[in-house]
């Protein structure tokens, strides 16, 4: 009996088109339609947006960050206040990362040992130890519907020996994470994370090792960490076929609309990225015709909206000249409008992807979407 079979499966595959899939992932706080884009609400807020707008834009699930929330306001305080959903007011599914990735990218004086990652808080400099067991405890206290195992992600390019060391450590942490998760109530999920850098054999070993442990779903980590898109896609080609077809696959921290379309084509179901809100705060809009930098003077007298055929009101109604003015003036409303415009675009892209796969038209959708992007904004 494969341990993977012992783990309940809350994912339902509805249709496939080539390697692309569309399905439904049922969580304790609601259903997630896949392929799904999950906006990142790092410290319990979606920067520049109300949760109402996130929901109206079409997001079924949002992400929270264990690293940030355990440091401030603390997992124990959020638990005492009823958990992340009640604390934030987002009354839907939430996924939290394990925190190790953020430690490596945000904190100082960090040390990785067999037992844990030790670091100093970027907020008050306090020494903190994050073990697989503590990471799972924090995610359980937050009440997230989908928790991630503790792992070590290596930036690329990297030495083969370092990639292998981190991949093997992550596999041992996967087993410890699963043991620590065993007391979670039914319906709550734990995903394993495939590591292995840009080395196919290490990707294979990681994927096989995780399936042997058995998880509700499988993430592909350690990509979009400095490698060319072609390398990222090649590693997805090496990894996805080794993951159980009937369970969800999540590509962590990816990506641009083009990255997402290419990864859906290769069998990925879930995505997250800070780009929609981060680019929005920097004056850049994602549209059906590619990215538009509203700081550019060419928009100063342009009365047209970004896309008059968009289903999203701000995208259909706000004049480029106004958005340009807000961005140049540093008005908060500029960041707010472009954040919602971008999150809405990503959600419209995912709606189009799901519909195309459901009707066996993914290839046509893929071609037409890329032609629109290539045509550019005129
Ligand atoms: N840049 C890719 C990336 C991003 C994240 C962060 S994804 C995220 C961010 C915020 C909240 C929830 C998930 C990762 N997280 C883990 N645990 N492992 C990785 O290899 C990895 C790679």
Provide the descriptors you would attach to this structure in a database record.
single chain, 378 residues, alpha/beta, eight-stranded parallel beta sheet, three-stranded antiparallel beta sheet, 43% helix, binds ligand KMB
Describe the protein in words.
The chain is an alpha/beta fold and 378 residues long. Helices cover 43% and strands 19% of the residues. It is built from 16 helices and 16 strands. It has an eight-stranded parallel beta sheet with strand order 4-14-13-12-11-10-6-5. The protein has a three-stranded antiparallel beta sheet with strand order 1-2-3. The mean pLDDT is 97. Bound molecules: the ligand NCc1cc(CSc2ccccc2)c2nc(N)[nH]c(=O)c2c1.
> What ligands can be seen in this structure?
the ligand NCc1cc(CSc2ccccc2)c2nc(N)[nH]c(=O)c2c1
DSSP helical segment count: 16
Q: Tell me, rounded to a whole number, the average pLDDT.
A: 97
Structural class: alpha/beta
Name the poorly predicted regions. none
Proportion of residues in helical segments: 40-55%
Strand content: 15-25%
Distance between the termini: 58 Å
C-alpha Rg, in Å? 20 Å
């Amino acid at each position: 009996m494969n341990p993977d079979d012992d783990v309940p499966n809350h994912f339902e595959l509805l249709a496939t088109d080539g390697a692309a899939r569309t399905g439904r992932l049922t969580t304790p706080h609601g259903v997630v339609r896949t392929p799904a884009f999950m906006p990142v609400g790092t410290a319990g807020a979606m920067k520049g947006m109300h949760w109402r707008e996130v929901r109206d834009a079409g997001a079924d699930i949002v992400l929270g960050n264990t690293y940030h929330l355990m440091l401030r306001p603390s997992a124990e305080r959020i638990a005492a206040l009823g958990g992340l959903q009640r604390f934030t007011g987002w009354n839907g599914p939430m996924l939290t990362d394990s925190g190790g990735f953020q430690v490596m990218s945000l904190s100082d004086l960090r040390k990785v040992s067999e037992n844990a990652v030790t670091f100093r808080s970027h907020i008050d400099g306090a020494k903190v130890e994050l073990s697989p067991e503590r990471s799972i405890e924090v995610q359980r206290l937050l009440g997230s519907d989908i928790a991630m195992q503790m792992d070590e992600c290596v930036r690329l390019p990297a030495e083969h020996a370092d990639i292998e060391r981190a991949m093997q450590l992550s596999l041992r942490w996967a087993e410890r994470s699963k043991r620590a998760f065993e007391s979670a109530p039914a319906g709550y999920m734990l995903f394993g994370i495939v590591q292995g850098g840009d080395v196919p054999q290490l990707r294979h070993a990681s994927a096989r090792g995780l399936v042997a442990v058995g998880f509700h779903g499988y993430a592909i980590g350690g990509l979009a960490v400095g490698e060319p898109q072609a390398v990222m896609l090649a590693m997805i080609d090496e990894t996805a076929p080794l993951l159980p077809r009937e369970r969800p696959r999540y590509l962590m921290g990816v990506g641009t609309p083009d990255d997402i379309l290419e990864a859906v084509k290769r069998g990925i179901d879930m995505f997250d990225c800070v780009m929609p809100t981060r680019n929005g705060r920097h004056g850049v809009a994602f549209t059906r015709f590619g990215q538009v930098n509203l700081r550019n003077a060419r928009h100063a007298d342009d009365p047209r909206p970004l896309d008059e055929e968009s289903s999203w009101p701000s995208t259909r109604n706000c004049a480029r000249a106004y958005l340009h003015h807000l961005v140049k003036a540093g008005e908060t409303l500029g960041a707010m409008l472009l954040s919602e415009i971008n999150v809405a675009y990503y959600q419209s892209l995912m709606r189009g992807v799901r519909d195309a796969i459901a009707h066996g038209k993914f290839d046509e959708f893929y071609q037409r979407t890329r032609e629109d992007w290539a045509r550019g904004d005129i």
